[in-house]
User: Fold these one by one.
Assistant:
Number 1:
Amino acid sequence: SYRLELPRELRKRGIHNVFHASLLRVHEPNDDRLFPGRMETQVFDLEDKDNEWAIDKLVSHKGEREGAIFEAIWKLGDHTWVPYSTIAHLDVLKAYLEALGVDR
């Protein structure tokens, strides 16, 4: 197994930094035309609370509690993953959790 130094954005998304040698490959940059929405820069920092209008809905999540990340569909149709810490104040998160029957 190998321990890699990952960018802060990937660690924030919950990606573990230890990989078995059989999983490692030579890095090839993402082709956004073939695989849209998979660039590390597409995990948005939403520190500005005025960005609430941009997320249409949340459709899934990975992880638990404050470590969770959520798949967001933006009003323009893009799909990205956003960390809980940046959307905790948004009404769209409240609606998503209510639909799941989760009390905050």
Note: Residues 55-100 form a domain with the OB fold (Dihydrolipoamide Acetyltransferase, E2P) fold (CATH 2.40.50).
Number 2:
Amino acid sequence: DWVVVQQMRDYVEKYMKTGGQYWEDSNVAVVNILKYAESLTLAGDGMDAWVFDADETLLSNIPYYENYEYGGLAFDSKTFDAWVLEMKAPALPSSLLLYDRLSTHGFQIFTLTGRDEAQRNISVQNLVEAGYKGWAGLILREESDQGTSASVYKPKKRGELVKKGYRLWGRVGDQWSDLSGPYEASRSFKLPNPMYYIG
């Protein structure tokens, strides 16, 4: 597993938690995304879509990772799943603003996450309690997707949306695997996350 090397852990902690730069960088990204989104003329037929990742894109798991040296310790799926069950991941404030503005602008919003289908109910509740509502779809890993890398799984699911007729105007994620591969949106935007890497 990819971990933050010892020499960088203090830097990552300062960036993510104490220095404020993470939030500032997230805000700058969202300002640029909104400039693009609000320049578009949508068809208004309900097929103009935008795709978000969930973790570290809509929801912040910093309260979990601060107990694991901000990525300095190897990922533990059992403790992370236990955290997900608590449904306490807060919204990234800038992402919630972006989400609301895109919804108002007329985009159909899809959340495409690496979480498992078995986590649907708790994910829905966490998203709603964090302030997200009115999405067109929440796409999670089904049993047939288990073991598939994110860089294969996510393009496959985007392709299913395209085949249904949706126009993907934008997508936002914190990992390059959220954004790579076929069935790209017209524009892709990456949010910062130095804590971990998903291929």
Note: The CA atoms of residues 149 and 180 lie 12 Å apart.
Number 3:
Amino acid sequence: IVCKFFIEAIETQKYGWFWECPNGEKCQYRHALPHGFVLKSQKKAMDDAAKANQITLEEFLEVERHKLGSTLTPVTPESFAVWKRIRMDKKQAEQDAAKKAKDTQHAAGKLSGMSGRDL
């Protein structure tokens, strides 16, 4: 276990040649940092550096939008309505096919029960 006074002296930069532990010679704790120990001040500096390197959501979206290129179809209310109608029709057709498959299995006696969703 590392001495709390030692860590405090390191963090406040008071540790040096003439620093003495307040516990004196009878201090039972170590006066050395373990391998990989990160001081609070260093951790704060690393966090600040990480935040500085992190891009905002708006910047990320702009970069990704520019990566798409210029061969895209612009979205208008009319084109969106067409896309939405096609998507809903496709979804309805898939649901109808799944229901028909379940009905055929049920008619053949292979389906033993109903799920909660079917109920």
Note: Residues 74-110 form one domain.
